[in-house]
Amino acid sequence: MTDTPRNKTSRMSRLSLLSIAVTALTASPAQAFTFSSGDLQGSLDTTISYGARWRVQDRDQSIIGKANGGTANSVNGDDGNLNYDKGLVANVLKITPELELRYKNYGAFFRGYYFYDFEVMGNDTARTPLSEAAKDQVGEKGELLDAYVWGSWDVNNKPLDVRLGNQVINWGESTFIQGGMSSINPVNVNSLRVPGAELREAIKPVPRIWASLGATDKVSVEGFYQTNWKKTIIDPVGSYFSTSDLAGDGAEKVVLGFGSYPDNPALPGTAVPKGSTREAKNGGEYGLAINYLTENATEFGFYFVNYHSRLPIISAMTGSIAGALAGDYPASARYFIEYPENIKIIGTSFNTAIGTSGISWQGELTYKIDSPLQIDDTELLLAALTPVSPALGAINQLGTFGFGQEISGYKRLDVAQIQSTVTQVFSNIMGANQLAVVGEVGFTQVIDMPSYQELRFEGPGTYTSGNPFATAAGVQP
Questions:
Q1: Of 125, 139, 159, 177, which cross-links 214 as Cys (Cβ 3.0–4.6 Å)?
Q2: Rounded to an integer, what is the distance from CA 350 to the centroid of its chain?
Q3: Which helix (H) or strand (E) segment is 199 a member of?
Q4: H or E stretch including 115?
Q5: Is residue 88 part of a domain?
């Protein structure tokens, strides 16, 4: 995102695996190509980079399903692990061009993004082929990211800035920790996986109108309205970093049996297919911010946002009587992805310098109202089987359901989060012009969160029910 006048808009390593990402060549132009004609000015800045990644450690059998040769009680999260042996797993050429135009008090900004992974597009995976949708995310992708126009005016001697188009709005002060004000911007997680990735390539601009008015010399008011909803893009099924076969591009089914049934191919009666995705509506997403600059150059921000979930929620639909009579009830059931709407965030932030030390200190406090939290998918699937196995109603935490009944996969709760960031910039260090050291800490509290004995929420490695009677009854390992 570029700045308009008067508006300076300020995973994971796989368990027991080691990836080494080496950026072999990064070509950033020392000076952008600029041009002008009268009042029209422009610049074109293109970054070209090449990077590679190698897997250097064998697979950990504890996170591979039993039917696939491991010891885990699920085969629904190991496709990416099984698809890549030791050796080269990414071999990427990446291009990021930026075009900026200015005419008097108007302007436009465009950013594109293209990458090609020679390893993904030129070689087959070791086990499960990547779907075309998955290759579109991790093999070859070209897209227009930022694309907006802006204007700046004086209204009764007060500065007014407006932007219209695909843009990122940077509210709050979080650098690394997710879940605060940064929740308003969807992310393409796959762009972060590319060797040599930059944050500007991963945060997804969305269609918005944004305006900022300088009410006084110390106070400014900002607001936005988002016209089209966009989701966060997660790892596609079978890609190197994928840990779930249920939600990303290429997802087709969830396999039952606590890891004892194969998933490639799934046996009849052992898998629940994926149903249609319920995306959030367009419209109804907006926000308001008030910024206050004190005499000692400390800036405070106050925010209110209403938005729709960027992250997928897994819910379920029980199967039909006809499916049960045919002897393949699981095939008549469905799990589906949905994106709950109307999540509210109230927040405040600060940004200041600590004396003359060169240290910057930032902080953010947010309170989410009605945030949807994913219920553990094992509890969800056990509940979906209760029409043909009523005894499971006493074992899972969601109860007993009838045929053709929907089971919501989330519970809305309020979530508070506080975080603080410290930044120190050093000059002329080890031959570099500048070195920045950034540290961030945070704390998250779910308000009135039920105990795990009452309701389990989704977490890594929870492949069986939390009810000990399920194990005692032989329903699960």
A1: 159
A2: 25
A3: helix 199-202
A4: strand 106-117
A5: yes
Q: What range defines the domain where residue 306 resides?
A: 19-472
Whole-angstrom CA distances from 455 to 105, 307, 466, 467 are 56, 26, 9, 10
The DSSP code for 477 is: -
Question: What's the pLDDT score for residue 465?
Answer: 79
Predicted TM-score of the model (pTM): 0.90
Q: In the structure, what pLDDT confidence band is assigned to residue 460 with cuts at 50, 70 and 90?
A: confident
What value does the CA radius of gyration of the chain take, rounded to a whole number of Å? Answer: 25
Tell whether omega for the bond before 312 is within 30 degrees of 0, i.e. cis: no
Distance CA 407, CA 189 (A): 28
Q: Which two tokens stand for residue 222?
A: 């900002």
Q: 64 falls in which pLDDT band (50, 70, 90)? A: very high
In a domain, 429, yes or no: yes
pLDDT score, position 26: 46
Q: Which residues pair with 288 in a beta bridge?
A: 223, 304
For the record, the structure tokens of 303 come out as 């925010």
Give the model's pLDDT for residue 19: 40
Of how many residues is the chain composed?
477
| Order of all β-strands in the sheet with 313-317 | 334-338, 313-317, 406-407
Helix ranges (DSSP H) in 289-422: 321-325, 329-332, 377-384
Establish if 434 belongs to a structural domain: yes
The answer to whether 274 touches 257, Cβ cutoff 8 Å, is no
Does 6 map to a domain? no
The CA distance from 71 to 402, in Å, is 34
Number of domains within the chain: 1
Residue ranges of the alpha helices (H) in 8-52?
A: none
What pLDDT, in 10s, does the model give residues 291-322?
999 998 999 999 999 999 999 999 999 999 99
How would residue 59 be classed by pLDDT, with cut points 50, 70 and 90? very high
Which residues make Cβ contacts (< 8 Å) with residue 389, sequence separation at least 6?
Answer: none
Q: Which two tokens stand for residue 413?
A: 């709760």
In this predicted structure, what is the pLDDT of residue 236?
97
Q: How high is the pLDDT of residue 224?
A: 99
Quote the CA–CA distance of 420 and 433 in Å, as a whole number. Answer: 26
| Residue 82 DSSP one-character state | H
Indicate if the pLDDT at residue 28 is higher than 80: no
